Every structure is written in structure tokens, then in C-alpha cells.
Amino acid sequence: MKPIEEAIPVVEMRNIKKNFGAVQALRGIDLALHHNEVLGLVGDNAAGKSTLMKVLSGAYIPDEGEIFLEGKKAHLSNPMDARRQGIEMVYQDYALANNLDVAANVFLGREVVRIRLGPIGVMDHRHMEQETKSLLNRLKIDISSVRQKVERLSGGQRQAVAIARSTAFNAKVIIMDEPTAALSVAAIDKVLDLVRELKAQGSSIIIISHRLEDIYQVSDRMIVLRQGRKVSDTPVEGDIHEFRERVVAYMIGARDDFREKTVAG
Amino acid sequence: MSFINYAQKMVRENIREYGMFIALFIIMMVFAITTNGLFISSRNLVNLVNQTGYIAVLAVGMTLVIVIRHIDLSVGFLAGFLGAVAAIAMVSWHLPVYVVIPMILILGIVAGLFTSFLVAQLGIPAFVATLAGWLGYRGALQLITISTGTIIIPNETFNAIGNGFIPDIPDIGILPGVHKLTLILGLLAITLFITNELITRRRMQKHNFEILPAGIFTLKLVFVSALIGGIAWILAGYQGLSWTAVVVLIVVILYDFITSKTVLGRHIYAVGGNPEAAELSGIRVKKITHVVFASMGMLSALSGILFAARLRSATTVAGTLFELDAIAAAFVGGVSAAGGVGKVMGSLIGALVMTSLTSGMNLMGIDISYQYIVRAGVLVAAVIFDVATRSQGK
User: Fold this and answer.
1) Which residue, A88, A243, B64, B306, could crosslink A166 as a Cys pair with Cβ 3.0–4.6 Å?
2) pLDDT of residue A181
3) Position A136 in a domain
4) Predicted ipTM of the assembly
């Protein structure tokens, strides 16, 4: 039997509902993420996956429903608040300042201060550069210098920096929104390797992707959303063809594991 | 890697930063030759520095405004208006200079916060908001000087800021006719620079960070020391360091420190590079906008003080076109119109380049119409250089 702490999910979302005017974007979704698990979140456009993750990252406040972090009820009022509580989001367009170097981006908004003179904090450049260096080494990210400006990096390297940045401050959960959407095939493999590396080092990750093979390669479990509802919550198993057929069946509405529940509710 | 290869690599990677130093150097050399040395005479260089002063402080503030993707057109007439307020405060209200200067600087901050309120809170484009400021401050300047015309400022302490020189230590028999305090300050600056570089280098070495090869490092030390020494020597040959130069140096060193070493500076550049990412990282973009425009307002006030002190008076047209000179200086100094890129030191050099062109061409007796065209060419060349080196970097 597992110890009790491990049995408590790191994130639990219960009955999350969110409307935009007349549009019911989320119609009561339950989601649990366990420690050291990679959860794939799949669905067609407008299925609600991005909205659900924006709720978890504090960008949207849900109309109904509750969020628990390690068993404790959490209130996430904005992205910064969610971040402070250990929820890190990696955005599709990286959300990096291209004019700054790698170390500056990793520590953006959380700079290490050496001396504080009233409102003016003098940064500890050396400390931040060393931390960034060892972070990149630990995650096996290949970037020659932490002083390189982000605008000089390739798309894959930028995504790696964005992911590294999300792990730098003891995040409880890392959400990746389409981390491979803008990348070349070679860069995609590197990002997927990085996801595996993070899992090996104990991270808990939710990954949104429209590329089913990405989900298949790195995820332990998969949730399919359709029209604002959860229609499937199953382990990732079997061969890729079977997996793909199964997922597509859920995505287009041919299969639905939670239909009865909704009718009953 | 050999010395030459490394030097080539360094120049390639840092051409953007060294480019304007090289440009300034070439411009000065050309004028030195065409004016038979008159241009680099002590007297002319001191004059050049004093002429650059009131534009340089504006260019420093403008750098940050452009870095966060805004513009401020109101700074010229704001400077003129606040200069006139300073004159009236001393002449009509009989306030002592030590009250007037802080008061004017605070008024500048208030004016800057008014602009940033329009820009950050109400979302009015900075171009429009500050164009309104340009009109408003112009009107205000004319209004307060309408009954008096030009106001003569009789206060010598105030006027010294624009015309005076730092005092010398008493004559001790050596180097007669040379401003010794200026030389001592020059030596002090060199010593500080070298010790600081050595300490940084040792610390970097200890922590296995990339450092310059010993040859290049020595070359850098020698070059910068010679530069500081040379300037100190030339200035010491006339009346020494002017108060304007002291003010500009303090402003540039302070702003250079803030932009490169502090969290505030880092956040200013982050907002310029990617406002959305900055906001998501918990940086309050509005707060940064307020700080940057407030600093611009304060520096406009300082510019107004420097200009009024230099003319020993407040005129009805003070500040005309200062804003465009400051913007041009910033662009020549490597600030990118796209935002996020540009250094305070660069804008100082940019201001020096523009004033050098005016001063040099005046000495050569070139007609003012050609002067404008030449300066236009330099501005365009600087921006082309900026665009070219940027796309190369990618």
C-alpha cells in the first residue's frame, strides 16, 4: 500500500464550470493529477482544454467548482498568485523577453537581490547565472551560455528555456500548453526528452497537445475533453494505432465514458 | 583561439556597442583635421560638453521611454516651461536656489506622472498624450513669460550650473595653469575603473565564468584609462571640469547603474522586450510606465535648469525642438525603435555625436542648411546600422 501523502493528488479540480456569456465552455469537469505523473489533456478545438488550464493557472476564475492543491483548498486569484502556490504554466508562445539573456528570463520577476536600498534592489547576477547554469545542466539542456540573448536561440531552445524556467522554483505542477506546436521535428523530440527528464526528476506535469503521438510518448494517463465535458480518463497503453483510434473516437463523440453521470447529474 | 581571431569575434559580436564610439572618434578626428586642431582645443571641448548637457540628460530619460515602447514629445517645452518657473521663483518670489532646484525637479516628476496617468491608466497612445503636452507646455511657457519677456536670472550660484567650473585646489607650484583637481579626479576615475575591473575579473575566474583573454583585457584597461586621462588632461588645460559635466556624469552613472544592476532596470527592459511576458511574470507594467515617465519629467526639469543657467535667463522659446534632438541622440546612440534595446551610455554618446557635428561644422563655417542635411544623414545611417547589425545577429 502507498503512503497516504502519495495517494492525495497534487492537484484536484472538482466540478469546474465556466461560462462566457451564453457559451458553456466548461460544464463541470473533474480532474486529478497525482505526484510524479504526466497527464495528457486532449480535445478538439473549443473542447475546453485551454480554458480548463487557464482556470488552474489563475488566469480565469471558475463560475463553480473547487481546486485542491495537495489536499488543501486553494484560491487562485491571478496567474502570479497561482505561481506563488506552485502552479507553473508554460505558454505556447514561450512568454519570454527576447531582448534579455537566458538567466534573466529564468529569473524574470523573481530576481535574486544582493542589497536592497529602499525600493531599489541590486541584483545578484552571479548567483542567478550560476543557478541557471546548473538548472540547464540538470535538465540536460544544450545552450552554450546563460548570457545568450533569447532572440539568438532556436525555437526548441526557447521552449527549453521556458520549461526550465517553470521548474526553477519548486513548482508543484507544471502545465504545458502545446509545447511542441511551433517546433521542427528535431526540436519536438528534444522537448519530449525534456518532459521525460522532468518526470524522472519527480515533476508532476499536465501537457496539452493536439499531436496525439506526443501525448502517447510521454503521458502516463490521458483525459479527453469534448464540448466542455470530460469524456475519457484512461491510462495511456496499447500500441500507437489503437491509441489513436480510441482517442479520436472520444474526440468526435463516438465514445463517452461519463455520459450517464452527466444525465444523472 | 588566437588573439587576432578573438579580437575579430569580439568586434563582430559587440559591433553595436562599439559602433558609436568608433563613429564619435572618427567624427572628432575629421573635425580636428579640418579645423586645424581648433575642434579638439580645451576651450571648444568644454563648450561642447556644456552644449551637450541639456540634451544629454533628456536623451538619457528618452532612452528608457523608448525602451518601454513609448515616446515623449513634451519634454522640450516642459524643460523650457520649468526653466521659466525656476527663473520666476528666484526673481519674483525671491526663493533661494537650494529651494528652487528641488522644487523644479519635483514639479518635473509631477508632470511626468500626469503623462503616465494618461498613457498607463487611460490607455492614450504616448504620441498623442505627449503631443498634447507639447502644445500645453508651450502655451504655459508663453503665458508665464508674456508680461516680462525674457527673464534675466541674477543668481550666480544658479548660473554656475550652466557656466561654472569646479574649484581648483590651491596652487602648489607644480603644473601652473593646469586645473589640478580635474587631473586628480581623472586619476581617481582611472584607479577606480582598473580596481573594479580586476576585482570583477578575479571573481569571474573563481566561478569559472567566461572572461576576456589577458591580452584583450590589458588592451581594454589601457584604452579606457588613456581615454579618461586624455579627456581629463584636455579639460584641465582650460578651466577644468564644468558643473554641467558633473551633473551629466552623475545622471549617466546613476542611470547606468539602475538599468544594468537593479531589479527595476531589468523590469524596464523586460517590459520593453515583451510586455505580456513581463505581466505574466508578475511585473506591473503600469508601475514601470509611471516610473519611466516620472524619471523623464524629472530629467526634463533638470534639462530646463541646465539650459536656463547656461543662458543666465529664461526665454519665451526655451526648449524648442529639444525633444527631437533628444530622440535623435537616443536613436544615434543605438536605441531601437522597436523597444527593449538601448543603453543610457549609448544615448550620451549619441548626444555627443550630434553636438559634435553642429560644433565642428560651425567651426568650419558650413551653412546651417547643410548642417541639418548632414545630421539627417547621420541619423539615417545610425538607424540603418542598427537594423543591419540586428538582422545579422539572428
Assistant:
1) A88
2) 84
3) no
4) 0.87
Backbone angles phi, psi at A12, to 5 degrees: -135, 125
pLDDT band per the 50, 70, 90 thresholds, residue A264:
very low
Q: What structural domains does chain B harbor?
A: 3-164+242-393 (1.10.3470)
Residue A22 lies in a domain: yes
A238: CB partners within 8 A, 6+ apart: A246
Residue B16 pLDDT level (bands cut at 50, 70, 90) = low
Residue B92's contacts (CB-CB under 8 Å, 6 or more residues apart) are none
Which CATH number belongs to the domain containing residue A182 in this structure? 3.40.50.300
Enter the C-alpha cell of residue A81. Answer: 498568485
Question: For the segment B218-257, what is each residue's pLDDT rounded down to a tens digit?
Answer: 888 898 898 889 888 888 888 888 999 999 999 999 999 9
Set of chain A residues whose Cβ sits within 8 Å of the Cβ of B269: 97, 99-100
How many angstroms away from the CA of B67 is the closest CA of chain A? 11
> Across the interface, which of B209, B263, B276 has its CB nearest the CB of A121?
B263
User: Which of A53, A105, A108 to probe the B interface (max B CBs under 10 A)?
Assistant: A108
Q: Is residue A119 domain-resident?
A: no
A16 three-state secondary structure: strand
Per-residue DSSP letter, B166: P
**DSSP per-residue letters across A101-136:** BHHHHHTTTS--EEEEETTEEEE-HHHHHHHHHHHH
Task: Give contacts of B394 with chain A, Cβ < 8 Å.
Answer: 151-152
- Residue A169 sits in which domain range? 4-99+154-264
Torsion of CA A232, A233, A234, A240, to 10 degrees: 50
Tally of structural domains, chain A: 1
**Is A134 touching B (CB cutoff 8 A)?**
no
- From chain B, the residues in CB contact with A91 under 8 A are 280
